[in-house]
Amino acid sequence: MTQDAFIQQLRHELRSLPKKVVDEIVADYREYFGDALAAGRSEVEVVAALGDPVKLARELKAQANFRQWETRRSFGNLMRVVVSIAGLGLLQLFLLIPFMFYLLMLTIGYVVSGSLTVAGLVTVVALGSHHLFGWPSFHSVPFTFESSNVRTGPLASVIGKDKAAKDDADESDSSNTDHASAQGDASQATADMKVFRVDGDRFVLRPDAATRISIVTLAGPIDIKNDGGKLRINSVGGARDLFKVDPDGTWSIASADIIALDLKDHEGDKVSVARVGAGSKSMAWDIRNHGEHVSFVQGMDGSGKSLWVQSGSDSVVIDRDHMAIRSGADNVVIVGSHGSGIGAMIYGFALLAAGIVGLWLCLWLTRITWHGLVRYVQRQLALITARLDEGQSA
User: Which pLDDT does position 318 carry in this prediction?
Assistant: First the structure.
């Protein structure tokens, strides 16, 4: 290879460097060739001493990138030196792959720790401001929509206009049931049943139209059955004396005297009532009336309040901290705030502490990585410089 061919290939391999740097390197090697030729050496001998121009260009690029990093010590410049060194051999390339994966994990650590820090700080500041100054207000309820065809607006619009009439009836049932839960009265939920209704604080029955009524009272159990059009009554103790019987065949009993009631008429409608608390008004209801299904607990304070209404594939579920409304493919879930403010504050402090510890650990690892990487680069550049000096001396 001639001098011109060597210089041309060297310039081509150094094309990624700035033109000024390339010109300086080419000028140095032309001067080296001139000195060697003046000393009586041939071009072939000089080219053989310098070696492959491709490998020489890689070493020179690594050296140039290292000088640029020494001028301006940034992480990007340091990484360019590392990549240049990795291009010199297969071993360095294999070492570069796990190092890049380590940097990716370190970046993810920064992102996660930063997110935890911000979330914890926002939680602590928001709750602290809320308790001290009343702002921001947490009265609004967060909600989510899950639907194949989500529509905004009032409940009837979300469920669908084509079901508006049916939804009005469902809302009427659910609102009446909710009223019953608040007032200790389930009259509206059973208003259209022929065999059973609630009148104030009394249960009213028409046993002549009922298939079967089983009641457990404070005085004992009683079983009322329509057997072939004839009324058959079986009671134990003074249960029958608790009932008031009107001339038209209507039976009524105070709800406070009821422990459990199970009723089923000839149309398949059912009413089940059971006392669930120490108070007489704490009762669990399960009503199936003409295909509609209502289940709720009335008279319970605290976490015992719940409502479940179902009509075919449509349903409404109201619990202590959430409400779910389903109609066909549409599903609306409203989740209210739960847990104490102190618990949320502790949770916020835990997030903040975890984020700060994570950031400190990431910074510590970054510092160790930086120093180790600088020592590795300096050691490799010393070897490269020694090889370049050795080639020029030869």
Answer: 74
- Show the 3-state SS of 69-115: HHHCCCHHHHHHHHHHHHCCCHHHHHHHHHHHHHHHHHHHHHHHHHH
Instruction: Give the start-end residues of each E strand in 336-377.
Output: none
Question: d(Cα 207, Cα 231) in Å, to the nearest integer?
Answer: 7
| Claim to verify: residue 171 and residue 296 sit in the same structural domain | yes
Number of domains in the chain: 2
Does 112 fall in a domain? no
**Which residue in 199, 195, 198, 190 sits closest to 293, CA to CA?**
190
> What is the rounded average pLDDT for all residues in the chain?
77
Number of H helices and number of E strands within the chain?
A: 9, 16
Side chain identity at residue 293, one-letter code:
H
Q: Is the pLDDT of residue 86 over 70?
A: yes
State whether 207 and 287 are in the same domain: yes
pLDDT at 303: 46
Residue 81 amino acid letter? V
Residues 256-311: tens digit of each pLDDT: 889 899 988 777 788 888 887 777 777 888 888 877 777 777 765 444 456 666 66
250 within some domain: yes
**Parent domain of 240:** 164-307
Q: Is 65 exposed, middle or buried (0-12, 13-18, 19+ CB in 10 A)?
A: buried
Exposed/middle/buried for residue 114 (C-beta within 10 Å: 0-12, 13-18, 19+): middle
Residue 176 shares a structural domain with residue 301: yes
Between CA 254 and CA 288, with CA 238 as vertex, the angle to 5 degrees is: 45
Q: Is residue 280 domain-shared with residue 184, that is, in the same domain?
A: yes
Domain boundary among 307, 330, 345: 307
Is residue 312 a part of any domain in this protein?
no
Residues 174 and 75 in one domain: no
Give whole-number Cα distances, 38 to 47, 89, 338, in Å. Answer: 15, 35, 90
pLDDT digits (tens, 9 = 90+) for 135-182: 776 654 444 444 444 333 333 333 333 344 344 444 444 444 343 333
| Residue 320 falls inside a structural domain | no
Cα-Cα end-to-end distance for the chain: 17
Q: What's the Cα-to-Cα distance from 369 to each of 101, 103, 162, 231, 315, rounded to whole Å?
A: 13, 9, 65, 91, 58
Percent of the chain with pLDDT over 70: 75
Among 307, 324, 348, the domain boundary falls at 307
